[in-house]
Amino acid sequence: MIFWGAKEIMARIKLGVLASGRGSNFQAIIDAIEAGRLDAGISILITDRKDAFAIERAKRHGIDYLHIDPKEFKDRDTYFSHIADELRRRGVELVILAGFMRVVGKSLIEPFRNRIMNIHPALLPSFPGLHAQKQAVDYGARISGCTVHFVDEGMDTGPIIIQAAVPVFDGDTEESLSDRILKQEHKIFPMAIQLFAEGRLEVVGRKVKIKDYSVIDDALING
Ligand code: GRF
User: Which of 39, 49, 198, 208 is most buried, most CB within 10 Å of its CB?
Assistant: First the structure.
């Protein structure tokens, strides 16, 4: 008789990752999987840009990828319904927006309600939208950070899963603050995905309840 350990019988959650650019968050997720910190598999990387460096990362790690060009579709809903089909075809259970620079259409949000996660480089609801780090510097915020949230129809408005805070120093530029925040992004994105994989996230209204959760890391990371 063969006995399987709990980990072996637990099906790994299937991720579909959408990215537009350099893909450092995509890399952090790959690294967490390879290090055994994240019980997930990446079924597909989809990019909207042919030159996204994320594609190189997928190649290096033997991950399937697709470039789906929005220009080939008549509107946003047709584009995202095609993406939804590609994700469903591969049995994707959780969609990860890892630096995907497009507003997601409802043809993807509806079939994957509360199963799409995004990372935003600010402490939402402050500084939604583009150039969040520059917005924080220009505003004179003393603390900023990053947020992992589920995606809804609004711009960075979905239920918040985890946030991490960092200080903003005098003399910080958009670049220096972005670097500081990015280090935290790479920590909390895999954490949030792992919580989902363990079935510990429940969306209640606009809040996310985390089962059996006390403190993950330190006072500045809170989920
Ligand atoms: C990150 O700052 C993320 O918060 C934002 O876009 C950037 C993507 O960076 N949504 P990368 O492509 O993951 O390196």
Answer: 208
Residue 108, domain extent? 13-112
Q: Is 120 a catalytic residue?
A: yes
Residue 201 inside a domain? The answer is: yes
Per the prediction, the chain carries an average pLDDT of 93
Q: What is the mean pLDDT of residues 205-222?
A: 75
Q: What is the pLDDT of residue 213?
A: 74
Question: Which residue is associated with the tokens 């190189």?
Answer: 56
- Lining residues, ligand 1, CB within 6 Å: 19, 21-25, 98-99, 119-121, 182, 185
The torsion defined by the Cα of 166, 213, 29 and 185, in degrees rounded to 10, comes to -10
The pTM of this model reads 0.93
Instruction: State the total domains in the chain.
Output: 2
* Residues 158, 129 share a domain: yes
Residue 128 contacts by C-beta under 8 Å, 6 or more apart in sequence?
120, 122, 155, 156, 157
pLDDT at 8: 46
Distance (Å) from CA 7 to ligand 1 centroid: 31
- What's the whole-number mean pLDDT along residues 181-208? 96
Are 103 and 157 within one domain?
no
At 159, give phi and psi (nearest 5°). Answer: -55, 135
Cβ atoms of 130 and 100 closer than 8 Å:
no
